[in-house]
Amino acid sequence: MKRFTVFLAAILFLAIPQAQAGSFKTDKQKFGYFVGMQMGLELKELGIDVDLDSFVAAVKDAVGEKKFKMTPDEAQATKQLLQQEVRASHAKRKSAMGEQNLKEGAAFLAKNKSAKGVTTTASGLQYQVLAKGKGPKPTATDNVTVHYRGTLLDGTEFDSSHKRNKPISFRLDQVIPGWSEGVQLMNTGAKYRFFIPSELGYGARGAGGVIGPNATLIFDVELIEIGK
User: Fold this and answer.
1) In a 3-state reduction of DSSP, which class is residue 118?
2) Where on the phi/psi map is residue 209: left (φ > 0), alpha (ψ -120 to 50), or beta?
């Protein structure tokens, strides 16, 4: 029962596309369709291509407590093969996403460099001064305290210290290169907007499940203070 509860909790988070009302006469029919719908979405998300007749037959055998048509050894071997297929599918999709992100990022940065107030450094980092500061500038090994907001090119916010109502502190040589270089340009009290190409961000690995491979990032950063 515990495993089924965990299963239901997990599948409820899957996106359900636009649909039309079904003509179900009983709750049992609704339950059956719901579980099948969610399992189908999960298979699609994982990129697994299965024979639907075999899938339905296995479900019927499991629910009806019939003898399975696959030995434990065959099941284990098939499980390993399936895991390989899933990894290969994931790698393929990640590669395609990375190529698309690189293309979109390059086009954005090429256009953005001529935008009003935008400066491009030798590394490719772009920045815009939103508010000037009057305090000192940090060095690469300084601890700094900042408020920030990070978004993707489409405006999706992936992190914000403002939402947590708490700034963060860190050493500048322990963050992504775009941050390390960019914050060193700032005087204490300043607010900058950074446009960070993927090679100065998280690169091909991405981060956190939201930042995809080779994603160009936008950060609004306020340098509050430099620590000792």
Assistant:
1) strand
2) left
Instruction: Return d(Cα 90, Cα 224) in angstroms, integer.
Output: 41
> Is pLDDT above 70 for 207?
yes
Per-residue model confidence (pLDDT) at position 22: 65
Q: Which amino acid appears at position 156 of this protein?
A: T
Residue 176 appears among annotated catalytic residues? yes
User: Structure tokens of 101?
Assistant: 């992100």
Q: How far apart are CA 218 and CA 150, in angstroms?
A: 6
148 catalytic per annotation: yes
Average pLDDT over residues 134-151: 96
How big is the CA angle at 183 (ends 181 and 187), to the nearest 5 degrees? 130
33 is catalytic: no
Half-sphere exposure of residue 206, counting CA atoms within 13 Å on the CB side? Answer: 17
pLDDT tens digit sequence for 72-101: 999 899 889 888 888 888 788 888 889 999
Is 4 considered catalytic here?
A: no
